[in-house]
User: Fold this.
Amino acid sequence: MTAQAGKKQSMDANPLDRLADLLDGDMNAVNAEILRRMDSPVALIPQLASYLIAAGGKRIRPLMTLAATSIYGGDMKRAHGLATSVEFIHTATLLHDDVVDESVQRRGKDSANIVFGNQASVLVGDFLFSRAFQLMVDDGSLDVLKILSDASAIIAQGEVMQLSTTNNVATTMGEYLEVIRAKTAALFAAACEVGPVVAGAEGSAATAMAEYGLNLGIAFQITDDALDYSGTQGKIGKTPGDDFREGKMTAPVIIALMKADEDERKFWQRTLGEKDQQDSDFAQAQKILKTHDALSQSLALARDYGDKARLALAEAPDHPLRALLDELIPYTIERES
Amino acid sequence: MTAQAGKKQSMDANPLDRLADLLDGDMNAVNAEILRRMDSPVALIPQLASYLIAAGGKRIRPLMTLAATSIYGGDMKRAHGLATSVEFIHTATLLHDDVVDESVQRRGKDSANIVFGNQASVLVGDFLFSRAFQLMVDDGSLDVLKILSDASAIIAQGEVMQLSTTNNVATTMGEYLEVIRAKTAALFAAACEVGPVVAGAEGSAATAMAEYGLNLGIAFQITDDALDYSGTQGKIGKTPGDDFREGKMTAPVIIALMKADEDERKFWQRTLGEKDQQDSDFAQAQKILKTHDALSQSLALARDYGDKARLALAEAPDHPLRALLDELIPYTIERES
Assistant:
């Protein structure tokens, strides 16, 4: 998908497409590996997995593994397997997330839990997660296994943590940042860190790439959470207002709550805290966020993390892919979908 | 639990308790490791995990890892970590199973999905699964990682396969055996195989122990499925008739279906195929199974697999623990809970 889109692009295409274009051959190898490794004699597994994976997605995490490996001159054949592993861990968490959140849309289509049921989503998620570990074992590096098994445990912890902040209007910005650092940014960090590790890079290379991925991941999630209030359905590929309807405590709401008057506080408590919502409430929420400038302040926060990502990335050797990873930072934050 | 129960036992105690007694110190180390490794700053994780793990369970899988390692003279400190890993994989699958099956009871208590909700059960299952891999990475053996990551993928495949046999009265005995070999026996096999691998045993030792575990696991699951029709609630720790109510296709039903007359075939089609059940149907099902001797024929099938397990075990060196693993075979099949 991404590689194909890359082919028809000009110099002003977005950095994600240009990344995919520069890594065209490698992404084709990863896409082939994804198809090969999601296969199983149990027909429902490739059916469900390909439904979700074929629906596209940005493939941002495997691209980061490929780019980070290439920048440090690592073995790209190993990077193909590990990028596949990273994408499988991501896909497994999406499947479980959609069950947990009772989502109805993902990547602009009915989500897998709606089409195939919760049972299949949970179990195929487990399969992809196991398959991810089989890929790492095939790769044979205990260092890589440590990075990705640690990330997996942190992701699960973040998801559980999020359960206890949901519907809790007392959630602080610190708690929110802790949740997204774990549930989203940890896998971005691991996907990047794997690159220099595969390349056997010395010194602080692995830490610097992990730091880049971690901060980019935080910026990415804050932006995602802002888009849930500002995005339009066709573009973001899911229903805007999902977080609001579920009572998720995200950056825009936490910022608005810090400035809320008595009435607004009651509004958030009723809609998010007690999930007592009427049809007009989402529009009202958007209006309150606007009053307090909460979306632009969320994006300002995302830019702070973007700056940290940029600083960390500067440690990496000069390389056309490094330049694109750098451009990816503002693109991640200013995107509309 | 098990270790404590072991202390007050006499020579005629069951072989599982005697196994726990002989491996008392090791099981204490495993129980301590389980508690230590299920801990997390996210309070809900140890709460939910200890709710299920403290509820007991037979700890049969970690006992097998300990016994198999000890028989081959492997490092018992390594066995403690790996037995913990095996128990975490098992616990993660129980948590996800109960969500998928919408169970209400497990080990004689309300199941975790009922007490903590489906969301927490899915996510804490993911956490324990990740933690299992962290334990293996700490152990540092790629051979062990391969055995357990392969087993995990096979388990997930078996669970998905079971989804498509459920409510399908055309399911054959071969398909049923394929399902239980994957969803249950694969982890028994892996738990045993790890022992000689940790010990660095040569030749066919690992294959023989895996073969023992696999066949014992098949016998164990067939027995479990028979107990769902013959057991009493207090003893089996779950509600008898659960499989029937869910429309699961298990050995007793498949045997009864092979001998069914027209009316009986309609009965199974209505109750299991279409899940159209009345209160009196479970008693009727038990009656039909009795008519066709389906429970005793299921146990005869379990004994066939028990014989295969015995044959494989005979390859292991002479050892008091080997004798107990041998006694475990009839105990597994003749148990009432």
Q: What stands out?
A: The beta strands of chain A are 105-106, 109-110. Confidence is low (pLDDT under 50) at residues 1-10 of chain A. DSSP finds 18 helices and two strands in chain A.
